[in-house]
Amino acid sequence: MTFACLALLALVGLGEPKPDASELVARLASVQPAEREAAAEALGRMGQDALPALREVRARASALIDAIENRQLVQPTLVTLDFRERPLSEVVDAISKRSEMTLALVSEGAPDRPRRPITLQAPEPVTFWTALDRLCQAGGLRVVPPSEAWQLPARRIARVGGGPVHLPRPMPGSELILAPDDGRGTGPVADFGVFRVALIGLHMQRDRLFFQNPQTTSGEPVTSRFVARVQVQVEPRLTLSWDAKPVVLEARDDKGQSLLPDPSPAISRGPRPVLQFGARPDLLDIPLNYPERPGKTIMRLRGMLPAMITGRRPDPLVVPLEGAPGKTFRSEEATLTVHEVKAVPNQPGLAVDLTLTLQGAPIPSGPGAGPRPASVATTQAQLEFLDGKGRVCQSFVLGPARLGDGIRRTLQVAPGPDGGMPVSVRHYGSIRAKVEVPFEFRDLPMP
């Protein structure tokens, strides 16, 4: 023990004036273990007088952790492309592993396509969205929209991204499905970090009303609606939502006329649109103003989407299913109680009945002061079941959620990829960040 540590303990023990709490807190970070222990012991003896200094450090550390995690959350995933004459399935698998995001390849109807050799190279790592674009171009593929994905039977989808199943980042079920390109083409896109905003179309609708209800109509015999329809995506490792309106910053045609909407534009689907989990995009109609004598093109359309993204913390709470029924498990952010684990009659896999409660962690509606029920979506999005080899098992919700001290749900968990039974469940804490997502499109034909 150093002389400073002995002197510190002596002062506390002899009733001399108490050392400064802030100085003691600073010594907790000493490179000398003995000095750290002496400072901790001295702070413990100070009792309540030490709490303000400790809480100040805790608040600063927590704010710094949040700031660092938020910056990391919005950084785009970079992927190395160094493939020369490699089978398409091998390239898809490698990109899936390198990005830690699951890709699925539709194989039926084009049985030879997965074996087709492609070359995909870049001198420097590229963003995930750029890698996906180049993969689709080289392999003759397209990304299947969620509106079509549900129509694909499971037998038609060959999941070649086997690597990510044991990694912590992907959300359950948040995968991108790739299919042979059918020639439908793509529209303008605006990439920003982990985001992709695609312009789906410009829609102009004009109505003449011959019968009007004063209580439901504005009184104008002719009404019109002009919108830009966009599709928003985020990297599959994240979820996306927002509760603010899109903002159009600039919109003008080739005659110089402004296409800016009214000061308080309404979103066609209500004021609180919510995007789907992971890579599943939603469509948004952004209101514009259609001039009396429009030009031929929209020279520039620029705006911003106030978004909230959520990702997973890297240190999950892991609970073995064997012997878990009737027990409660805790992490810094959540409490997980397993009520029952049983076989499902006439079906493979298990039924797991559990309750998830958040421990005062920040949630989209604001910070909580005490335990709060997790949202129904969070229950499944942040839970992951694994087999004995650490591979993710698919899970499905059985019946409605039951509200109490937490969200109680029963999930049916299927066997792993090789038929292995699920042996554990893990819960991931969440990281959230607010982001203003810019978009810009140029030289668009006027409808």
Task: Describe the protein.
The protein is α+β, with helices and mostly antiparallel strands and 447 residues long. The chain folds into four domains: 3-74, no CATH class; 78-180, Phage tail protein beta-alpha-beta fold (3-Layer(bab) Sandwich); 193-311 and 434-445; 317-428. It contains eight helices and 26 strands. The protein has helices at residues 3-13, 21-27, 33-46, 51-74, 88-99, 128-139, 146-149, 376-381, and strands spanning 78-79, 82-87, 103-106, 117-121, 126-127, 141-143, 157-158, 176-180, 189-192, 195-208, 222-234, 239-241, 247-253, 282-288, 297-312, 317-320, 327-330, 334-343, 350-359, 371-373, 383-387, 392-393, 395-403, 407-413, 422-427, 430-445. Strands 17, 18, 19, 20, 23 and 24 form a six-stranded antiparallel sheet that branches. The chain has a four-stranded mixed sheet with strand order 6-8-3-7. Helix 2 (21-27) packs antiparallel against helix 3. The protein is globular and about 80 Å long. It starts with a helix and ends with a strand. The model is unreliable at 9-15, 155-173, 265-281 and 361-374 (pLDDT under 50).
Largest sheet: 6 strands, antiparallel
| Count of individual helical segments | 8
List the uncertain runs.
Answer: 9-15, 155-173, 265-281, 361-374
Question: On the 0-100 scale, what is the average pLDDT?
Answer: 78
> What shape does the CA trace take?
globular
Structurally, how many domains make up the residues? Answer: 4
Structure summary, number of beta strands? 26
Percent helix: 10-25%
Gyration radius, rounded:
28 Å
